[in-house]
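Tokens help. Consider this.
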Amino acid sequence: MTSSPTSPSGPPRPGRDSRIARLPPRERILDAAEELFLLEGVRAVGVQAIAERANTTKMALYRHFATKDALIEEWLRIVAAGYASAFDRVEAEHPEDGRAQVLAVARFVADGLPDVARRGCPFVNSIAGLPDAGHPARRLVEEHKARQRRRLTAMCERAGATAPDDLSAEITFLLEGAQVSAQNGSVDRAGDRLVAMVAAAVDRGAAAP
């Protein structure tokens, strides 16, 4: 779709029109929602703007997603699934090697920091726009983070940490902090620093009495 001059989404990305045209309607809607949610925040974006960006109508959008909240939830579910797949991949690539698994997770996050710097973290941005603690999308993010923390704790245990839960908490602070720092530009070489700090934390945790 080609955006109108007054569209809040701005000009389309190079090649976006031809790529989006090949997607089924539901995927076009999700793609448009992602762009606008990351650009303007989940609260600020209206259904009409999403429909226009997806080259469809509000009626068609509501056939796939009963409410805007349902669309937000499905988008975040897809984002969370991408992180879960990354954890699956590093566990498969480094079976039983907890240290390598943790470092691979850190590298995965580090590699994604340039995108976070440009577009922001989907989870952080969405939570800021969902003040209702009972919102389904907010609960989805909280459950995703809890699962991720449990998996990281298991990796720390395999790495020989004497206090794997404490170590996974420390590493979570590092991972989350690096993403915020990349978003606000407060730390240079955030990716390299992140990987080095996570490695030091794992080695220190495994060496602790």
